[in-house]
Amino acid sequence: MNRDNQRAELEIKTARIHELLSEKGLDALLLQRVSSIAWATCGADVHINTAASDGACALLITPSEKFVVSNNIEASRLGQEEGLAEQGWNFVTSTWYENESQLAGLVKGKKVGHDGLFAGEVDLSTELAWLRSQLTQPEEERFRTLGRLCAESMNEAIQAVCPGMTEFQIAGLLAGAAESRGAQAVVNLVGTDERIFEYRHAIPTEKELRRYAMLVLCGRKWGLICSITRMVHFGPLPEEIERKMKAAAAVDAAMIAATRPGNTLNGVFKEAQRAYAQQGYPDEWQRHHQGGLAGYESREITATPTTHHSILMGQAFAWNPTIKGAKSEDTILVGQQSNEIITAIESWPMIEAEAEGKFFQRPAVWVRD
Prior knowledge:
Layout: H1 3-24, E1 28-33, H2 34-40, E2 54-61, E3 66-71, H3 75-80, E4 90-94, H4 99-107, E5 112-114, E6 122-123, H5 125-132, H6 137-160, H7 167-179, E7 184-192, H8 194-198, E8 212-221, E9 224-234, H9 239-258, H10 265-278, E10 291-294, E11 301-302, E12 316-319, E13 322-323, E14 326-327, E15 330-334, E16 339-341, E17 350-355, E18 358-363, E19 366-368
Helix pairs in contact: 6-7, 9-10
């Protein structure tokens, strides 16, 4: 990353943190989530266990100082490879078995806000999710790169899928394609045949693919997360699946069209409800969340009928309308004139869907012999 760009990004985020502390009347902000730490450090990777929400260190930020609280296992890598020493963080390092006491000493006597992983004090997880969603220009560029990597990973994996493979094997293809590009497959879902109709979140199993497969990837790099879903069918596509995919594409187009500054998350949600009804599936929105703001979590804020957050320029969204047996999902950036789909796969078969007088290209089922 360009040093000047990183310095500017750090200054923006530090100012936002200081403003939050002042607004809440707090002495310090404690960040322990992988997502929060990546955001505050311009993309540092502090995960060890992908199943854990907390990172390998903690950040403590006051109006005048900023600390990395780490153990002796992680400090060297964080300072050198992740660049935290160059960013000006002060390291407070202890042996691995004394880390908690170090943190307790630093926060003693302070009124502390935190990102949801610290007992007591002031939970600011909601406010921080909103801050993480407000992307800087360098974050937008990193998101574009990640979107391309996730699209390439999905395309590579799905082209290698063939009948007789187990869902475990297909998930392995998707994980391998992502990881080989430096993106962690933090969500890796695979459903085949009847399981696509039964389960909206199909965890991979030993079931073998006969004709129809759905692959879902949430790929993480620099802390950011992109979401993408694609479907493949071997042999003639049944009319039911084609009809439902067109309907899901129409809902997705309506949501993308509505995702513009001046609108709100619940405003987009209302458009989704209207589009589902127009397509003849008025109740399907109740059976799965419809997506929302993307960022350093797969969904920083999920849209509901009561999420009144305003849509801002430069934010990222991942909508995922589903109809039993069909789904449409990409990650988009809100641009000056229009929205940019950053996980598009070149030459993928598309469905043209109209919304608000404009035409949107949404992914169809890839039909293979």
